[in-house]
Amino acid sequence: MTDKLRVTRGGCLCGKVRFEVRGPLRGVVNCHCSMCQRLHGNFGPHTKARKVNITVTKDDGLTWYKTSNVAQRGFCCECGSSLFWQPFELDATGIIAGSLDGQTGLSTIGHIFVGEKSDFYDIADDLPQYEASSDGELVDDYY
Question: How many other CB atoms sit within 10 Å of the CB of residue 22?
């Protein structure tokens, strides 16, 4: 199956939010920013897809929270599952990798905002690390 024909499904813990992505997903980028630390208890593992390729198929609990002038985050207001990071000015939405169903075939491609990383863990791989954003240096991290 080609990436264009790929359909990936996901959702929250309680099932009140379900979504599907048609087409390719970017590899996973681990974000170590202070907001991700508070949301996830550690870093945030995000894949990404173009906004037009994401369809929310069940939104009984989907709520959006504006975290900055740059983006909003989507989560389930029933179970609290973090699902999306959506920039206002870009053509893509970050998707929390753990919200995807089953095996994804994705792999981690790098780390961003390591300058804000907590001190209680180490990054134990040799993947690229960026003090802040990768500014597009990671594959498809610009959209």
Answer: 15
pLDDT tens digits, one per residue of 66-114: 999 999 999 999 999 999 999 999 899 999 999 999 999 999 999 999 9
Token reading at 20 = 């599907």
3-state secondary structure of 43: coil
Domain boundaries, the chain: 3-116
Q: Considering all CA atoms of the chain, what is the largest pairwise distance in Å, rounded to the nearest integer?
A: 42
* CATH number for the domain formed by residue range(s) 3-116: 2.170.150.70
User: Quick one: which H or E segment has residue 65?
Assistant: strand 62-66
pTM for the whole structure: 0.91
Per the CB < 8 A criterion, the answer to whether 71 and 78 are in contact is no
Q: Are 83 and 96 in contact (CB under 8 A)?
A: yes
How confident is the model over 25-55, as pLDDT tens digits? Answer: 999 999 999 999 999 999 999 999 999 999 9
